[in-house]
Specification:
RibDG_C; 5-amino-6-(5-phosphoribosylamino)uracil reductase activity; Dihydrofolate Reductase, subunit A; Riboflavin_Biosynth_HTPR; Dihydrofolate reductase; 8-stranded mixed β-sheet
Amino acid sequence: MGKIVLYLAMSVDGYIADEQGGVGWLGGDGSEPGAPGSYPAFYETVDTIVMGWTTYHQIITELVWESWPYPGLPCYVVTHRQEQDRESICFWNGKLTVLADKLKTEREGNIWICGGASVAGQLLKEGRIDKLWLSVIPTVLGKGVRLFAEQGQELLLKLVRAQHYNGIVDLVYEKR
């Protein structure tokens, strides 16, 4: 059975993007420029990727122009749009919790919630996130796209790992 893991970077004040949706501020403080960070090791555990339309659109139009950055991994894009599925990309316009439950049952490795805030918020609110892996970037944005909008309930967490590199702090939590 797979585990649903929210793996995202956020600013010190809890934003995942600036007001225009930009992520140009992502990066460390330069104190360890050669540090590989946690992404390569995390990516090795990923079996399936889930993201919202905005994240998908940003990846294909702003961040990666040459090729899809997740070759060989099934990817589900949650959207209300009627899109044609592509090679390893399935456009899901059903209920998000149904997709989450389906993937947990069918997949073995980590199911990476890659973004964005709406998808993450819905899954958190419905109790579907098994692990939160947050990379805190040494930047205060002041405004933008908040990772944790009002949830309406508290979520108790247990810290299972913390590490730092290049000014970035990774915090890994599981539900208590």
